[in-house]
Amino acid sequence: MGAGPEKKSVAIRNMISFWIFGMCNNFAYSVMLGAAQDILKRNSESATPNVNNTEHCVEHITFRDCAPASAGVVLICNILPCLIVKLLCPFFMHHIPYGVRHFIICMSQTASLMVTAWANSVPTALLGVLLASFSCGFGETTYLGLASHYSKNSISTWSSGSGMAGFAGTFSYAVLTDDNLLALTPRNAMLVMLIVPISFTFSYYFILVRAPTIPAISATKPSTWLDFSTPYEYVKDYQTIHVLINLQ
């Protein structure tokens, strides 16, 4: 009788984890899209004053407040690394344990927000966009593969979180930077959003219950950080794998 509630609590924890995975993995990607205009103005804010920044109408406009590059540059930087990662991952992904992948993804997302926040030029800010795209692409291949070790509800909760990321990322950036709301600078807004990769890291190591088909790793044993053995060598066949998954 006691196994029922315990099994249900494990299932709930796993579903919450995958929802967080979907939301946090795509969060920085969405933020970079919402912050595209601010990213492209990084090297022009201090170089050229905005003489038309006034509450009154300007009769004769003598200055154009525009970015030196098109917003398409941000879009390309936000898509290209993600595409490359997805093309290359099938050739080496299975050698990297899920725990190590998750750490790389969270650190990449943290670095993307910090680099973009402290960037003083457009190329440096675009480097942050590239890191966000890398973490998003690497995360998609990681967590969708991870879902195969859990129940079928994992995919649906992941999808729900992914859909929420688009709204949460752009909406939170708008609220944080809007002059009529919190009125933070783009830099401070990016730094506030570091709470997302922190929550992201916590969800895998403390909320998700590790499936028996996932090899364990240890931070103090570098030999567990890469796995060149036969995947799931302790499982005899695919039928056994599905039995283990259904027990989750």
From TrEMBL:
Topology in membrane: Multi-pass membrane protein
Instruction: Please verify whether the record's keywords include Transport.
Output: yes
* Major localisation: membrane
- What Pfam family does this protein match (any one)? CLN3
Q: Name one GO biological process term.
A: lysosome organization
Q: What subcellular locations does the record give?
A: Endomembrane system; Lysosome membrane
Lineage, top-rank taxon, reads: Eukaryota
Keywords (A to Z) from UniProt = Lysosome, Membrane, Transmembrane, Transmembrane helix, Transport
Cellular compartments per GO CC: endomembrane system; lysosomal membrane
InterPro entries attached here? Battenin_disease_Cln3 (IPR003492), MFS_trans_sf (IPR036259)
Q: Where are the transmembrane segments?
A: 16-36, 69-88, 158-176, 188-208
Membership in a protein family: Belongs to the battenin family.
This protein's name: Battenin
The taxonomy runs: Eukaryota, Metazoa, Ecdysozoa, Nematoda, Chromadorea
